[in-house]
Each structure stands twice: as structure tokens, then as C-alpha cells.
Design a protein that fits this description.
This protein is of the alpha+beta class. Helices cover about 35% and strands about 15% of the residues. It is globular.
Length: about 375
């Protein structure tokens, strides 16, 4: 069903001592082109678990798409089981592995493959006295614990350290359900982790081959198929148009990613002549004008493969945040935006939904996961996916 959402966009105004025309801030008018089914927005609150919230949101939409059943999966079950696996690898590698709350989409799929899944009702995972995730204390305790184990004052690991770790995890998050129960739930919900593909686009890597994304949170060293930027965008658009949603990993540190549900990459605004400048000396002062109608929407940058690669190499594009793409909309000028479900609760103008422009997604996407059937026959052939 079509709907139009109007939002005021914040503009950065250059300060000057000369008189300026008073203009109204531009307003975005979003019209939905395609919207696929999602489950309600959740709140990760004080936890670095966007990777889990976004992936499970994606999987919940996949269950909806394939079975029509709406379910509420337990993020904390995945977080707890993933921490266990990460601790084992951290100790095996003598502490030369990132150990934090952050992780990757692939982590969720590996947990589901190995341990199954629990619903929120089966495993709320909040044993530390709050109604929303507040995991700073737990994260700090776990990090200190594994550092102590790696220091290994006995020069030989005990047989108790992993039981001790699991004791900490279950004290904070609850006892895990029986393995047979969670594996049965996975099978009941028809979650086949082998049906999903990870896509990235790096100019520095060989095309159409798996590439390990080199960020610290990718501690399982999961690989993504490398495609061109235009192919990446084509996959995204065709997936949404075909009824699929996407788990989307992106950088959100740009000023164009606002608190009010907008993600754009505006072109730098040319500075106006300041009082006493050489430009003002030769061209004179700008005439003040009466209040005008709403200003035009800001023009966005044209993104290239080289710009994407440079931003990644210079650490301007990092794995900041995992979100869930579920639709496509357009503004009043016909420019397209992806509709994105976030995990920050009922926040911003659109109650937990963001509108990310084509330019923003081209520029700031790190990787995404989609069902393999969303890929075209030609792309499957290029990637050697059956």
C-alpha cells in the first residue's frame, strides 16, 4: 500500500556577518515504491549487538516470506552462544583476536547452524535486572576473564576455564535451553543457513570470488562474494522488488546519517562571500531577499568505486552498524531511497525506520546478506552459486 511520509530535513547553514535571505528548510516527501513485511522494531539499548538484532530481524522476515508465520527470535540466545565460541577462539589464538560485543552477520548464521535458535519467550536473556539490554558490565567481566585465562599463570590451561566462562554467561543471560530443543526450533521455522549469501564490493579484490572482510568484528573470518558497485546496487534493488529483504552492514558515522531517519551524502556547499573578503570586494555584497519557499533538496555526491575503496582504506567506512533493508521509496524529485529498519527502538521521525539514499548505500555499504534466490541467473553463474 502506498503511503507518503513528510519530514523536515535539517540543513547546515553557513554563518556570515552579511544579510542573508531567510529560507525555509527543505521537506522530504517519501512515497513507498515497494515495502516487504517486517516484524516490529526492537531496541538493542545499551548493547553492541546490532549485528544480531539486524540479522534476526532479517531472518524473521524470511520466515514471514516463506511461511507466513510471525515469530520473535531471541537475540540474547545468539549473543550468549556466540560469546562462548569467541572465547574459545580467543584463547586458542593467545589473545590475538578481537573480543568485544561487536560481531558480524555470519556469526548469527553459524550459531543457528551449530546450536539452533530460541524464541524470545524461550530465552529472554535478561538476568541482570533490567527490561532492556544493558551489557556493559557483562562485556567487561567476560573480557577480563578471557584475558586472565590467556595470561595463564599456571603455564597450562585448566579443564575448568570454559565452564567458568559459561557460568558467567548464564548468570547474566540465563541457562541455555536443551540443544535438541533449539535445533528443533530451527528446523520447525525452516531456517536453512546455506540458502544465504554474503555480498561485498571492493575495488582492491578479485571480482566474483569470496573475500574475507578485513574488520576486527569479523572474528569468524567469514567471506563475502565480491562484485562491482553497480552490481551490488542491482542485487539490492532486484531483491527488494522481488519480495526479499536484506541484512545491511554500513558505516553510520557520516553527518548525513541523521537522528531523524535520513541517510544522505550531500555535496559540499560552496561558501558564500564573507564580509570583507576579496570576492565581496570585486563582486559586491549579496542582496538580501525576502523569505522564500522551501529550499530545494540538497544535491548528493556521485559515488564511484574508487571513492568507496578509498573510504574503506582510510578507515572512513567501517563496520559501524547492522540494519535491515526492507523496502524502496522515492522523494518528490524521483530519487530512490532504501527503507531501513533500525534497532534503536521507536526513535526518529519515522519510529525506528530510516531512509537511506542510493548515494549513501553506494558509498557506505560494507556488506549485506540476502537469500540466494534473490540473485539473477547471470549473477549466480558469475559467483558459481547453485
Amino acid at each position: 500500500m502506498k503511503k507518503t511520509i513528510i519530514a523536515a530535513a535539517a540543513l547546515l547553514m553557513a554563518a556570515g556577518s552579511f544579510a542573508q535571505a531567510q529560507t525555509k528548510a527543505p521537506e522530504y516527501e517519501f512515497t513507498t515504491i515497494k515495502e516487504n513485511k517486517i516484524t516490529p522494531v526492537k531496541n538493542q539499548f545499551r548493547s553492541g549487538t546490532c549485528w544480531c538484532f539486524s540479522t534476526l530481524s532479517f531472518i524473521e522476515s524470511e520466515i514471514l516470506r516463506q511461511t507466513g508465520v510471525e515469530t520473535d527470535l531471541s537475540e540474547m540466545f545468539v549473543v550468549s552462544r556466540a560469546y562462548h565460541d569467541r572465547a574459545v577462539k580467543y584463547v586458542r589464538l593467545d589473545g590475538t583476536l578481537g573480543f568485544s560485543a561487536g560481531s558480524s552477520f555470519g556469526d548469527v548464521f553459524q550459531v543457528i547452524k551449530k546450536y539452533g535458535i530460541a524464541t524470545q519467550e524461550q530465552y529472554p536473556g535478561l538476568q541482570y535486572g533490567t527490561s532492556l539490554p544493558e551489557q556493559n558490565e557483562m562485556d567487561a567481566v567476560l573480557a577480563a576473564y578471557v584475558r586472565a585465562v590467556v595470561a595463564n599463570p599456571n603455564k597450562k590451561l585448566s579443564t575448568a576455564w570454559l565452564k567458568g566462562l559459561d557460568g558467567v554467561l548464564q548468570a547474566y543471560q540465563g541457562e541455555w535451553p536443551e540443544l535438541s530443543t533449539t535445533q528443533a526450533k530451527r528446523d520447525e521455522l525452516k531456517i536453512n543457513v546455506d540458502d544465504y549469501v554474503n555480498i561485498c564490493s571492493f575495488a582492491s579484490e578479485e571480482l566474483y570470488q569470496p573475500h574475507i572482510i578485513e574488520v576486527a568484528d569479523n572474528w569468524r573470518w567469514g567471506a563475502a562474494y565480491n562484485v562491482t558497485m553497480d552490481e551490488m546496487m542491482d542485487i539490492l534493488y532486484k531483491a527488494v522488488e522481488g519480495g526479499y529483504t536484506v541484512a545491511w552492514g554500513a558505516d553510520v558515522s557520516e553527518s548525513g546519517f541523521t537522528r531523524n531517519g535520513l541517510a544522505i551524502v550531500p555535496k559540499p556547499v560552496e561558501a558564500k562571500p564573507a564580509a570583507g573578503s576579496d570576492q565581496e570586494h570585486w563582486l559586491g555584497k549579496e542582496e538580501a531577499k525576502p523569505e522564500q519557499a522551501a529550499a530545494a533538496l540538497p544535491e548528493e555526491m556521485t559515488i564511484t568505486d574508487e571513492m568507496r575503496q578509498l573510504a574503506y582504506d582510510c578507515k572512513e567506512t567501517t563496520d559501524d552498524h547492522g540494519m535491515h533493508i526492507f523496502g524502496v521509496a522515492k522523494d518528490q524529485n524521483g530519487n530512490k531511497y532504501f527503507m531501513v529498519k533500525n534497532s534503536w527502538g521507536d526513535s526518529g521521525k519515522y519510529h525506528g525506520i530510516w531512509y537511506a539514499s542510493d548515494a549513501y548505500v553506494r558509498y557506505k555499504t560494507l556488506n549485506f546478506i540476502v537469500h540466494k534466490d534473490a540473485l539473477s541467473k547471470d549473477m549466480k553463474k558469475k559467483l558459481n552459486i547453485k
